[in-house]
Every structure is written in structure tokens, then in C-alpha cells.
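User: Please fill in residues for this 164-position structure.
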């Protein structure tokens, strides 16, 4: 299996240490999303129940795991960063806490889950399954009419469709 952070570094043709700086450029984030959006990934760790989670990539955060809030828009004393969440809940100290996060989207819920790039690996799948999943296609139509609170936080399929 290939770690997602290594795959992103390969796509951008840069070392893993400079991946953080490369992902701050919007064109590089769009390039990564075009390659990886809708592909299946799985966690490299087990949760408290011993389960490994598998899901499809729904987006890429705009900032690193040290800045991205883990629990949405809760006020400051009740909310922590994604990096702090993984240490507090799973006892995993991130080696690259400044790398961006992958977003798992739930179409009918208002919450998203954020996973650091270094804790995910790509799942091998057939070429026909790599197309954009039907659950992400409605985001294209919703983006023009509504202003979500997370517009500045993440880059999604919505921004790809608008040519951002």
C-alpha cells in the first residue's frame, strides 16, 4: 500500500518535507484533488474498537492539521486541532502536523471528518471505480447557491467545477 502523503509528493514531484509548502498553492491543491478525489483510502491505525476505517476522499483542507479544527465550529475552549485530537484520542503523535488533511464528507449531515495525510494509505481499486462518485456530484450544484461556513477552510469539488 502507498501512503497518501507519499503519493501527493509523487504527484507534485517534491520531497515529503516540502509538501506542506507546495499544498499552500491553490493550483497544486487542485492538481492533487483532480488525481485523488473519489478514490478510496484507509487509515493506517486502528480505532479503539480495533477497526480500520475505509472511505472515499471528499476534499482537502486549506490549512494543516495543527490549525484545522477537529470539531467544526465549536468555540475555542471546547475545540482542538486535528493534530491534538489524534494525540488525545488515539495517542498518535503526528510526524508532520503541518501537512493538510483529507476530508471525509457526509452528504446529508453538516459535519465533516478530517484525517491527516500521513495516517492514510491508498486502497488499490480498478480503474473504472476511480470516477467521481455520485454522492459528490450534488456538491457542484449546491456551491453556487449557498454560502457554507467552511468556504475558506477547504477546497472541494465545488471549487473545481467553478475553475478556481
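Assistant: Residues filled in for all 164 positions:
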Amino acid at each position: 500500500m502507498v501512503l497518501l502523503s507519499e503519493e501527493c509528493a509523487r504527484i507534485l514531484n517534491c520531497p515529503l518535507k516540502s509538501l506542506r509548502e507546495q499544498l499552500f498553492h491553490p493550483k497544486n491543491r487542485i492538481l492533487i484533488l483532480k488525481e485523488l478525489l473519489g478514490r478510496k483510502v484507509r487509515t493506517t491505525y486502528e480505532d479503539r474498537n480495533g477497526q480500520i476505517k475505509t472511505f472515499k476522499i471528499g476534499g482537502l483542507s486549506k490549512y494543516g492539521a495543527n490549525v484545522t479544527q477537529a470539531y467544526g465550529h465549536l468555540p475555542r475552549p471546547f475545540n482542538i486541532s486535528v493534530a491534538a485530537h489524534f494525540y488525545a484520542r488515539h495517542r498518535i503523535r503526528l510526524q508532520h502536523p503541518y501537512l493538510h488533511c483529507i476530508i471525509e464528507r457526509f452528504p446529508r449531515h453538516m459535519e465533516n471528518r478530517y484525517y491527516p495525510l500521513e495516517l492514510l494509505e491508498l486502497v488499490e481499486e480498478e480503474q473504472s471505480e476511480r470516477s467521481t462518485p455520485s454522492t459528490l456530484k450534488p456538491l457542484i450544484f449546491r456551491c453556487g447557491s449557498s454560502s457554507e461556513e467552511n468556504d475558506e477552510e477547504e477546497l472541494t469539488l465545488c471549487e473545481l467545477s467553478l475553475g478556481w
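For context: The helical segments are 4-12, 19-23, 26-36, 82-90, 138-145, 157-161.
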